[in-house]
Structures are given as C-alpha cells and as structure tokens.
Amino acid sequence: MGTIIVMTSGKGGVGKTTSSAAFATGLASRGFKTVVIDFDVGLRNLDLVMGCERRVVFDFINVINGEAKLHQALIKDKRVENLHILPTSQTRDKDALTKEGVERVLDELKKEFDYIVCDSPAGIERGALMALYFADHAIIVTNPEVSSVRDSDRILGVLNSKSRRAERGEEPVTQQLLLTRYDPERVEKGEMLKVDDVLEILAIDLLGVIPESQAVLRASNIGMPVILDIQSNAGQAYGDAVGRFLGEEIEHRFTKVEKKGLFSRFLRRSA
Amino acid sequence: MRAVSNANHAAERDAPFQLRGNSFTMMVLKVFNPASPNFFSMLGGKVRQAPNFFRHAPVVLDFDDLPESMADLDVAGFVGAVREHHLRPIGFVGGPRAIQDAASALGLVPMPTGRAAPIENARPNVPLNSALLAPPAPPEPVYRPALVVSEPVRSGQQVYAEKCDLIITAPVSHGAEVLADGNIHVYGALRGRALAGISGEMSARIFCQSLEAEVVSIAGLYRVSEDFDSSWTRKPVQVRLKDGFLHVDPL
Questions:
Q1: DSSP secondary-structure letter at B172?
Q2: Which of A2, B49, B118, B152 is buried deepest, with most CB atoms within 10 A?
Q3: CA distances from B199 to A92, A241, B131, B166, B219 (A)
Q4: What is the spatial distance between Cα B29 and Cα B26, in angstroms, rounded to a whole number?
C-alpha cells in the first residue's frame, strides 16, 4: 500500500509546487513508483512546473466525477521512470473536491504507487483540507520569515485536529519542515529568520533547508523539476531532503555563508 | 428502618447494594398546546432565565390538559425537542391512551399522579429563585483536576480549561489562545494570548517559563505586549492582580 505525503504551508508562494515536483521526482529517481497530484483546482500549476502542460487531456476532477478513468488522466513523465503526474482542472473550483471522490482516487492510487505526493493549495479552506485529510506524512514548506512561519504553525494545528488520522484517533500525521528560499547572507544580516529560530517556534523535525537559488525559477520556466539540475545548490538540497525522508543520515548543507574566493565567484554562475 | 436488628444491620453492610425509598423534587411540564409555534421559543426562554437550574433537570411531562384533538401528537419528536432545550424528560402523567403508549415506548415512566404545585402561578411576578426550587445539587467535587496539555498549542487553536487550572507543558504559539477559569501555567514559551480567571476569579495567575505573549489577562484586566517591560521578555514570570492592577513579576 502506498504512502500519502502532503506538501502544505498555509501561506502561498513559499514553494509548495516546486517542492512537490522536486520531491516526487526525487522519490521516483530512487526507484519508487510515485505520483504527484495537483490539489490546486482552478489555479493549475503543477503541470507547468513538471513540463507536461501540453499533454493534459483529462484531469483529477474528471476522475472524481467519473468522467474519465484514472489511467486516462495520469500523465507519465518523459524524463524519469516511475513518475506520474495527475494534473487538476483549471476551469473548476475547490468545491469539485469531494471527500468521497478524493478518497476513492487516493485508494486506487495507493494500490499501484509507493508514494502519492499531494501538492496542496494555499490557505486552510476546502482545497488545503482535502489535500491533507488523508495524509500519512506532512511536509511543511516554510520561508524564513514571520508570516510564513505563523501560517505553517496554523496548518500544523489543522493537521493535528482535522486530518483523518486525528479524527479517527490514529497515530498522528508525521510532520517535517522544509525551509525554502533560505539566504544565509540575509540571515547573517538579520533580515531573515535563522533555521534555529524557525525550529524553535514550530517545534518539528527539520527535513531540509533549500537555499534561495536562481536555478529554481530557471527550472520552473523550462518545465523541469529543479532536483534534476544537479549542478545547482537547490537541486542538491532537494536530493538531500529526499534521502533524509527515506531515513538516510545526511548533514545539512547550504545553511552558512559560503566563503567567496576569486574562482568561486566565477564558478558560482551556475548556482 | 430503625427497628432493624443488629444482625440484619451487619448483613446489610455486606450486601453489594441497598434498596431504599427516597423522594426527589422534580418539575412537571404541563403541556397545553404543543402545536403552538411559540411553545419551544418560550420554553427556550425559560431555560435561559436560569440555565444552571434548568440544564439537565429531570422533568415529568403532564399530558392531562392536552386537548383530545391532539391525540396524534408526535411524542418522539416532542420529547426530542424538549431534550434539545436541555431538559431531561424521564416520566409522564395523564393524556390519551395513544400518547401514553408512545411515551412508554420511548422509555418514559408512567408516574403516579400527585399534586403538582404550579410553579408559575404560585409565585406570580416573582422571578424563579433557583435556591428555593433547585433539587439538592450533586455535591461539588472537592477538587477539580487541572487540564493538562502536552502538545504545542498552534496558531489559531484555542484551549479552555473550564472551572479549573490549565497546565501546558509545550509552547503556545503566536495566534493561539489559552483560557482558564483558574490559573494558567505554561512550561514552554508563551507566545500567544493567555487569559486566566475568565469567569471573574481575581486571584487567578499566569505563570510561564518565557514571556513572549501577545496579551495576558486576569479576570478581564489585560495587558498587551506593547506595554510589556523589555526586562520581562523571554523571562520566567508570573502575572497577577494586585490592588486592581496587573502586575508582572519575574520568577
């Protein structure tokens, strides 16, 4: 039976979709059969980041409504074996997500896939609730700034009270922090929260720190998950995070200011 | 009972139970016109007048004055609606046969007809005096244990310790709210809002390991973080009322 991971944050624009795409790709590269689902009905983005927007015929909502079979809507990634994308509808809204419909689709996916990554929309309303309701693991995507941290705290409370595991009194949803857009230089200047500050407030395990990187935008624009850009800091950091998720002991990188030598200044152009 | 011999007495002490007669004061709800659109709004109003007295109070439904035309009353629905108003129908008296059967089927007990004192008419214009009418209240427990919370209280969450103290062994986040009728103890950082003694207990206090709160309040008097002295922040403190002012003292 597959494991359901929700990528959530409360706040918008912190990197949920980027992280979902990267994480799913990382899991699939390591041989796990993985599907990534876009729960952001009406604001469809995941297919763009995954570079499959021109292959969408049927979507998640069609499957929920019984208008298409699941395998008709699943898009197989062309770069990575074992990776599938379930895009969402751009023309509908979050009300199209019914609890019964989502459960039916997830149950079907669980039979076939090892990991099901749910890319949550921002907010704490229906879309976000449906994305996290059935989750086994939650990855909380947070930027090192106060409003993002507070919204993450809010979503942790929602996970603890409104997920299916919470409602049934089962073992709680495991929660790990993915700190994205981390800029050690700005942290040093006191313009951003330190890793430790965020951890102290949220009091959950740290899965990874993704450094602020131009590679992220570059990858999004060409429709490639940034984890495949193994030259970039961000791509390597996502790779580390996937390893940690699978239980490997990997030291955290990219949290300190790099010493800039003359050479590295030239070489850093790719990062 | 006084005539019981000593031997019998001993036997009674060893018995696993004792069956005795006793009498309890109960209210009778005389039902004149359950079809009236005002019936439940007026009943609800009555209950709200003295919620402590009426809430969960056992009542006997008196159908004696129910007109014949209402013999087809939906008894189950009626009893359910009475329950929704926090009264607990336990028995009934009088009424047409069909109503009695329906009431018995619901588990209500047919009561022997007694003399019911009409509460309203006997004391016209006198507000209900719960002290006079209340059945002997179940004894208050000597000690109400505190509500203990060991998980972080997250932004947007609210924890209320009703009629007791609140003890939290984890942090309270910004945007969270913790309330108690008694004292509040936070053995973690207090970053949200903490309101102690919210039912007016002036002696309630707030204790915390690290004061980073947005608001602290005791018995309705409050202080916002803007007014905090910088020497208190991130320090263990207690907050209490003294001479009508909120005092924050380092621990």
A1: B
A2: B152
A3: 48, 49, 21, 14, 7
A4: 10
| Residue A268: pLDDT band with limits 50, 70, 90 | low
Give tens-digit pLDDT for B35-90: 888 888 888 888 887 777 777 888 889 888 888 788 788 888 889 888 888 888 99
Q: Provide mean pLDDT across the span B204-231.
A: 93
pLDDT at B141: 74
> How far apart are alpha carbons B60 and B79 in whole angstroms?
11
CA–CA separation, A73 vs A59, rounded Å?
A: 5
CA dist B56 and B26 (Å) reads: 12
Long-range contacts of A64-71 (CB under 8 A, 24+ apart): A64/A96, A64/A97, A64/A98, A64/A101, A64/A102, A64/A104, A64/A105, A65/A96, A65/A101, A70/A105, A70/A108, A70/A109
Cβ separation A160–B151 shorter than 8 A: yes
Q: HSE-up of A28 (CA within 13 Å, CB side)?
A: 26
Q: Can you tell me the mean pLDDT for A98-124?
A: 97
**Short-list A95, A81, A105, CA closest to A126:** A95
Inter-residue contact A128 to A159 (CB < 8 Å):
no
The distance of A203 to chain B (nearest Cα, Å) reads 8
Helical ranges in chain B per DSSP H: 6-14, 39-49, 51-54, 75-84, 97-105, 119-122, 130-133
The structure tokens 């007026």 sit at: B42
What DSSP state is assigned to residue A97?
-
Q: Report chain A's terminal Cα–Cα distance, integer Å.
A: 38
Q: CA angle B140-B144-B145, nearest 5°?
A: 160
Spatial CB neighbours of A220, under 8 Å, sequence gap ≥ 6: A18, A48, A49, A226
Residues of B in contact with A201 (CB under 8 A): 171, 173-174, 191
Contact (CB<8Å) B156/A151: no
- Are B157 and A201 inside 8 Å of each other by CB? no
- Nearest Cα of chain B lies from the Cα of A260 at a distance, in angstroms, of 37
- Give the global pTM: 0.68
- The distance from CA A176 to its chain's CA centroid, rounded to whole angstroms, is 12
CA pair distance A74, A56, nearest whole angstrom: 9
Q: What is the pLDDT of residue A257?
A: 87
Query: 3-class secondary structure for A131-198?
Result: HHHCCCEEEEEECCCHHHHHHHHHHHHHHHHHCHHHHHCCCCCEEEEEEEEECHHHHHCCCCCCHHHH
CA distance A236 to chain B (A): 32
